[in-house]
Amino acid sequence: MSQTPASMSLRSVVTESSTGPAGSFWMSVLRRSPRMAIALRNRWKARPIADLTERELADIGLTRTDVQACFRSGMSADPTVELARRARINTRTMSF
Q1: Segment 6-37, tens digit of pLDDT
Q2: What is the C-alpha separation between 49 and 45, in angstroms, rounded?
Q3: How many alpha carbons fall within 13 Å on the CB side of residue 1?
Q4: Cβ of 67: how many Cβ atoms within 10 Å?
Q5: How far is CA 40 from CA 34, 55, 71, 80, in A?
Q6: Cα–Cα dist 27/93, whole Å
Q7: What is this structure's pTM?
Q8: Is the pLDDT of residue 95 over 70?
């Protein structure tokens, strides 16, 4: 069962690389906005999608334009939500 944004702890969102003054700053920001923390984490984890070939993107129902549009959204926007939505729409329109 996947966790919802409200049930995820900040500890699971912030990696161990967030230490020192910069890490303290980000921890204070993320404590105030857990949704933003989750969006940033998902943005970070979704980056490898941009490295897929056109064929690999098509296999998962996406186009290069879809990926570029999702990553152009603001830093607080979760691109994985929009990528999933676009993949569902594309899969419906591509199926015979």
Answers
A1: 444 545 544 444 556 666 776 776 677 888 88
A2: 9
A3: 4
A4: 20
A5: 10, 27, 11, 10
A6: 42
A7: 0.62
A8: no
DSSP string over the chain: -PPPGGGS-HHHHS-TT--HHHHHHHHHHHHH-HHHHHHHHHHHHHGGGGGS-HHHHHHTT--HHHHHHHHHS-TTS-HHHHHHHHHHHHHHHH--
Find where tokens 């999702």 sit: 70
Expressed in angstroms, the distance from the first to the final Cα of the chain is 32
